[in-house]
Every structure is written in C-alpha cells, then in structure tokens.
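TEACHING EXERCISE
Course module: macromolecular assemblies
Task: Read the component lines below, then compare them to the predicted structure of the full complex.
Student: A.B.
Group: 4
Components provided:
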Amino acid sequence: DTSLAKQKTDIKTEPSTDGFGNNNANDGRVLSASPGSGSSTGSNKQTAAVTPEDQQTLLAVLQFLKKNKLIESVEILRREAGLPENSLDPKATESAGAGSGGAAAVAEDQPDVRVVLSAYSQQGDPTLYEVYYSDLKKFIETVLDCHRAELSQVFYPLFVHMYLELVYNNHESEAKAFFEKFSGDQECYYEEDLRVLSGLTKKEHMRGNETLLDFRTSKFVLRISRDSYQLLKRHLQERQNNQIWNIIQEHLYIDIFDGMPRSKSQIDAMSGSLAGEAKREANKTKVYYGLLKEPEIELPLDDEDEEAENEEGKPKKKKPKKDSMGSKSKKQDPNAPSQNRIPLPELKDSDKLDKIMYMKEATKRIRLGSDNLPSVCFYTFLNAYQGLTAVDFTDDSSLIAGGFADSTVRVWSVTPKKLRKVKSAADLNLIDKESDDVLERIMDEKTASESKIMYGHSGPVYGISFSPDRNYLLSSSEDGTVRLWSLLTFTCLVAYKGHNYPVWDTQFSPYGYYFVSGGHDRVARLWATDHYQPLRIFSGHLADITCTRFHPNSNYVATGSSDRTIRVWDVLSGNCVRIFTGHKGPIHSLAFSPNGKFLASGATDGRVLLWDIGHGLMMGELKGHTDTIYSLRFSRDGEILASGSMDNTVRLWDVMKAFDDLETDDFTAATGHIHLQDNSQELLLGTYTTKSTPVIHLHFTRRNLLLAAGAFNP
Amino acid sequence: MSAMAEERRQKHCSVVLPTESMKAMAESVGVGQLQEDSCVALSEEVSYRIKEIAQDALKFMHHGKRRKLTTSDIDNALKLKNVEPLYGFQSQEFIPFRFASGGGRELHFYEEKEVDLSDIINTPLPRVPLDVSLKAHWLSIEGMQPAIPENPPPATKEQQKVESTEPLKVVKPGQEEEGTIQGKGQGTTTPDGKGQCLGLIRLKPRSTHELSVEQQLYYKEITEACVGSCEAKRAEALQSIATDPGLYQMLPRFSTFISEGVRVNVVQNNLALLIYLMRMVKALMDNPTLYLEKYLHELIPAVVTCIVSKQLCLRPDVDNHWALRDFAARLMAQSCKTFSTTTNNIQSRITKTFTKSWLDDKTQWTTRYGCIAGLAELGPDVIKTLIIPRLAIEGARIKAVMEGPVISNIDKIGAEHVQSLLLLSPKYPIPYHHLFI
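Instructor-supplied answer key:
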C-alpha cells in the first residue's frame, strides 16, 4: 500500500511544484503558467453544482495529506481550492465533472473510500427496492412514446446505484435477486459494466474497486428535456417514491434542456460512457482549432533539383510557385491560437531543410477523393510471434519503429539509406569540424544496417512515437516509464518516470520538444524532453487512458479512455475543454484532421465516430469494422479517412461527404442533438483485407500514399 | 427479447469456485480441517479476485493487439495489483492445463513431467526462432487490390460458387445493373444507378469477363509458355497456374483454350500438345483458390477425349500415347473425386460411358485401353464390380489377338498394353488365370 500512497502524493505535489520549477529553469521558453492558478479563478464562476459531497472529498484529501505530514501540499491544495484556513466555504470547491484543471484533478483522484461510500449508508427497506424499481419501470413504459426514450435513460444509473446500495448495506441475497431481475433490461452497451457489477456481491469488494468509485465520485450525467423531467418528478412525488428520488438527487446530474425530447436513436448515439453524457457546458469553452502560421521559407530552386526531376524522365512543366505555400499561411486563421500561445521550439537549419523537402513533396501530392483512392502499401512484420504491440512511421516515411512485447524497440530503415550510429568520442575528435560534410563524417560506416534494436524497457512496449526531426524516438511501456531514445547513437537518453503504472500511449508534439503520455493511472501527462517531471497533468478520465494525440497546432491534446469518453485538453491551462461521449467500448485510436477542425475516434466496438471540435458535436458514425480499430489516419489533405482494425482490414471512408451531408442548423448546434444518418455504406470507399494480419498502424506519406503495418498472425 | 435477456442473465450469473477447491488448495499448503463457513467465504473472495485479475488481464491483451489471452497478461495484471506474478507459466500459445475426471470428480491440472536433466543436456539445441523481419507488399493499387500471393484471393471459392450458381445475387464490381453497395467492396465507384432499377424486374447481369491489360498479357504469356517449346518456361507457367490466387477471372478463357486445343490437336494427332494441355488441366485443378465446377462441361470432355480417343498421335505403333491416356485417366479420377455430387453424377456418368464403349466389340484396342485405364483409376469398388467380372472375356479376346494370325501390328500392340494394364492394375489382386485360360 505504500506505493499507492507514494503515487498519490506524487500526483498531488507535481502540479504545484513543477509549475514554479519550470519558471526558473527556462526563461519562458516552456509553458510556465501554473495550471492550477489559472483555472481556479475561472472555475469559481462555474460552480453551479456544488454539492456537499465534493466538499467532503476535498476535505478527505486534506485530512489524508495532513495525516501523512504533507503540510506543504495541504497549503497548496487549500490555496488552489480557495478554502480558508479552517472553515467550509461552499463556493470554493470545484465541480468535479468538468475536470477543471489541477485542483479538481487532485480532489478527484483517489477520494477516501469510506467517505465516498458513506453516502450509501442511508437506506430504505431492502425488500422494497424491487417494488420501487418495477413501479418506475411500469410508469415509464406507459408514458407517451416521445418521453419514453428519454426517461428510459434513468434505468441504468438507478439500477447500478440501487444495487450498490443493497450490496453496501449487506443485503446480499436481495442484491442478487435485484440484479437478476433487472440486469437483462439494461442497454446492451452496458454489458461490460454489468459483468463487473455481477461479480461484486460483498461490501468488502467495494473497497478499492475503481469502477465503483467512479460511479460514486462522478455523477452520472443525463440529458432530459424539461417536459420529460417534469413528468418523472411528478410521478415520483405522487408515489412518494423517495428512495428513487433520493438517488436521482444525489447521484445523478440531470442536464435539463428546453425543446423537443430526443429520439431513441439520438440518445443511443451519445450514451454508452461510464458516466453518462457530457454536460452541455463541458463543451462550451472556445477552442482555437485553427492551424498555426507556417514560417516563411523560400523554396530554393537549385540545379540539383532540376537534375533530379529530369532523371525521373518527367519534363518540368511548371516551376513550383515560390510562395504557393507561403501565401496560404500568411492569412491568419481566425480560429487559430496566437502564434506563441504555447512556446514552441525555434526552427533549426535542419528543420528548415526538412520543411523544404516537405513542400517539394507536397507539390507532387496526389489529390485524393472518392474517385481517386490512394494506393496502400502494407508492411508486414514476420516472425513477430504475436509480440508486436506498437508501430510508428516518421513523417517522411523513411523509418519504421516497432515496439514489442519482449520489451525491445526496433527501428527499420525502409529506404536504401541504412541506419548508422555516430562514431565514438575518440573518433569524433579526429574529424575536421569545419568541413562541409561534417554531418556525414560523424557517422560510423561500420555500423550501417537495415535495422537496430534498442534495449531498456522491462515490459511490453505499448506506445511509440518518432520526433518530427527524426532524431529521437519515444516509447512507453508496461514498466511505467516513457523512454527517449537517440536515433543517432541508438541508445536511451532519458527514462521519464511518473506514471508508475503501465503507460498505454505516448506521442510527440507535431513541433517536437513536448510530448504527451497516458496510461493505467487515468492521468495524461504533458512533458518536455528536457524536464524529468511533467509540465501538465490532465486528470479527469474515470478509467485508463488508452490513447493520446496532439492537435496539429500543438495547443491541445486529445485522450481516449476505457471510460468510453474522449477528452480534449488545453495544453496552456491544463483544463479539459471537450468531452465526447458516444462510444460503447474503450477507445483505441484517435486522429485529428489536418486542418485541425475534426477529430476521428475508433474503439473496440468497431465504430469510428467523427467529431467537430469547434462546436463540440458528433458529426458522423462509420460502421463496418467488426473488431477493435487500432489505427486511424486522415489523408494529407483531409479528404479520406483510413481505418485499420483487428478484423484484418483497412477501410477507406469518404469523410468530406460525411461532413457535407450532415444537416445542422442553429438548434442542433446549440443543443448538440444531431440526427445521424445511417449512411456508413455510402461513405465506405474501399475495404482491403489482409491475409490474417491485424492492421495496427496507418500512415499517409507526404504524397498521399497510404502505408499500413501489422504483424502476420498465422 | 425475453430470450435474449434470459441468455444474458445466464452470462452474468456469478460463478463461484466450488468450496471443495478451497479445501483441496488448503490441504495442498498444509492447512487441514478447514471450516465449511471459511470455505464459502474464501471461495467467494477468491472468485471475485480472480475475476478482477481476469478483467485487468484483458486490458493487457487489448493493448498487446492480440485476440488470445496469454499467461504474460495475467502476470502483468497481477503486477498491477502489487502481487508477485506466477513464474513458470511461459507458454505463448496455449494454457497447458489438462482435464481429468474419475470417481465422480473433475479436475483441471497442470501436467508436470519429470524430466531427466541429462536428457536435456544431451539433446541437440532446438533451432533458433527466426528474427522479426519486415516485408512490404501492395495491399491496394489506386483502389484495386492486386491478386498477388501476399493478398487473400480476390474472390473466395465461396464467392465464385455463389456467382456461378446464383448469378442474380452477385454484382460484379463496376457493373451498373445493380450499382449498389456491394460493388464498392473492391473499391470501384459505381455511378448511382440505384434509383432506376428499383421496381424493375431484375435481369441476369451480363457477364462481361473483361480482363485488364495486365491480365491479358499474363494470359498470353502463360498460354504461350504452356504449349511452347521451352520446358523450363512451361514448368514456371504451370506453377503459376497452380498457385496464383487471382486467376478466377481468366478461368473461362483457360477452359476454352484447353477444350479447343484438345479438339484441334486430336484431329491433328499432336500428342505433345495434348500432353501439355492435360498438364494445364492438372495445374488448374491443383489451384486451391479456383472454383472449377462451372467449367467442367468443357474440361471433362477434353480429358475424356484424351483417354479414349482412337488415335492420339501420328505413329500409334511407336509413340507413347498410353502415358497420356494414363495421365488423363488419373485426372478424370481426381475430378470425379472432387467434383462428383449427387446432382451432377459425374462419376456414374463417366463410368457408364467407359463401360459402354468397352463392352462394344467393335471398339478399337486403344479406346479399350483408355476405358479400362479410366475405370481402373476410379477405385477398388469399380474394379471389383466392373473390371474383374469381365476379365475372362477380355483375356480370351487378348489371347485371340496374340495367338491368332497377325492382321495388324497396331492391334497386337494394343492388346499387349491392355494385357499389361490388366496385369499391372496395382494393389488389387487380379486372379492371373483369368487372363491365360
């Protein structure tokens, strides 16, 4: 248990200490604002739903800290939460659900179990629970059709809370009977949660059960129209059904809206997450989803290039316009964040060269569309013996990295250029540092090989990511560390410790320097390569963070989780700015569209969902895969979405059509009640089956060729 | 609905380990006389914890991108709970528990054999497993999946079967008749012709077997190599026919090529070409991805021709056309074995044909030989019921030719071959005296 305590304090102290530490360490080049201080003032205003429980948990945390003699942390937490020395100020606590930054993160993380469960101590007659529930069921079955779907939403959370109350109060047989009678009525997408619940039959089991704590700490959010809500309220009051009314009051958050009640399909589209839907205000914050202005780089037209062109046998017709790329990016996107909202590393000469390469390639890019599909090149890992766990390509598609269950990280060169190490220090001394080809001379020709293996992790490698400049590689592993490897020496440079539990995913920022990681501890961390402690902690998910992805403008991070929600976090403030619900299984892949406007997500339920980040809306649903989707990627110009799955297929989707077809008006935009068309089959442009090779990674080259990778599983 | 709910309730019904297991485990660690109450409490607790660990282990399986749960997943799940993993269970592929029952008790156990250490030391080292390597291929080229061995066959046998038996159900990619979703599977986009055909009678779609330029080139190369003079090239071409997964579109052409080829070359008595064509048939039959049923009406007559034709070569007394007859007979037997069903009755029809011409007195010795060879290949039952009863008559006939006045050398040679065939008919003991009475 000591390790757990250590872990707890670890999380708690970090946001405060590192914020200040970073300030000194680097003259404003890194994110410096303490995430908590920014948000605490803001969040005070939005504490519409402060409840005694939130306070209780906060106080419990304070007590715990005091007990463990962490006086400094107590001070910081109290200051951040705005609690005065020794009184209870009801205004000061934060609403937990919206995940408002550092302080809230602390409060939510590991509330004391006894305090949390004590809310279940009040109880009615255990034998009457079935009567109450079936009474409500009967009522909801008889209401008008238009309200029935909405009111049916309360069944699941009610069922869970009533069952837990029974279990908590030691009515084992009643609980079992209750479960057996009503578990069959619940929506099929709660199957997995029900399985967890069914195993839980004793009060002792509840201690330390994470799922349980989640049900309790986060209110289950329902969206119900005002009319339906009134109906429910009236019924419960008439019947004096206090047991149920209490649960609704205490454990559910009912987000009431005015207007038409939603249909069953609309509700089904958005539900399925562990804690209900997202509150509407959770998705109201402005998100700067636009792209950053590209630095202006002149495209040099050197002779070399022309020769190369002629060699290829293509007569050069048009000279690439010098500022074709530049002129586009000169106009500042109104939705873009200011250029230095997040301090970004300065471009090195080599980065500029790479940008030039990029632009040259971009001029040769194939324009994709529904009548012009990309070619798919599949890289099969042979003899991997079920051990391939992660793959990444460099942006220029010259290198492939694989993470394996045997803890190794391997890098392959897919171009004729072999991988070479830098010479030893002694040999480097002999080199003429003034020579033009010094970068070539430092490489040791004797070490050239097609692939290199890197050892260092002590558990399966679940996440892997190349730095944009191709000098570094990140890997995250079951052993709780994220490692940074040099691709010049092929050695490990840093092991970033902090997660303590398996780290499921990691990714470099598109501008390098920063990276994000997320894992079993339900916390995503933002790091900078030169800091051994995280700069930001994104906390709020109710279960493992399964995948992490940077927004193309590097100002936001998206995380997908086993709690079946996707959250988008602001890197500057550390706040959660979007919560997307609708998946019915753990989310295993995320992809931002190149223009930064859209997000695609894929889950174990085999569905891809499309999201509009600016409006916080679901944009579409792509059905077709029959197993977990492990990889999603937009083509370079965002026309086509490719998805790769455990069902051994790569599928291509016409996302432009999906976005165009969606009918949205002001009402749907304001309430988020979109009518999804079931047009997956029309949007599916192609399905390509492999021979028993699950597709675990996809990548569009700069010319829009699709690369896919997976291990052959005979 | 209620049935579904019922089923699910079954699933959720919490399974608890039997209390006897608790007792057995307690005894195994030296705790005897465990109270019944403690057993119940223990089994509930243990079952709950096992389920918890199983749930966590599943997470590791998902992140490991596997469908099979392995022992290492369980180890990792235990590590999450700060429990020491179970060492020693390192099997990757299967969980090595064995099941045994007896005396009314059922038991799953881990079989641990006693191994002599010296045996391990003295056995040669197993081969080092191959290292991970990377191989690239084209999964799709501009929306079309190329038919290469790295990709699954473009149309599975099942699809080909559906296509040939129920043509209305199948829409070929790119055909407008039913321009609906199905065609999109292959990545071709179809113009929206959906609206027009609604309400119309569904017509059988025109079967246009259009071949791409590459396929046409391939067809040309393959057929030329198959009947050409270079034996090495022919071997390569036949190998390609026998293994390439993407040939089904060319199958009608190959089938026509063979049947026409046989027709022409029988007339011209071109033995070599007939042999080449039969080898093509063999290669087609060897290809596991082809659904040949649709083309049997062309292939079987060609094969039968090569078995029973009166003359297959220019110099019947010198050339070894017998070998071709034998080879084709084997092919025939093979296709009877694979394709004969109660509806097409291939085997019985073929058997009848052979028997009929064999029984005919006017039948030439060459044809006679083919018929017997064809029948002999069809298996012991056929031999027993059709050949053996006729051995005496046949023996007499052979005797007549061999010992009688020499009318024609060819007849004599034919009779000799029939005799040796009947004698040779392997494996099945044919009473010799029948032939020499």
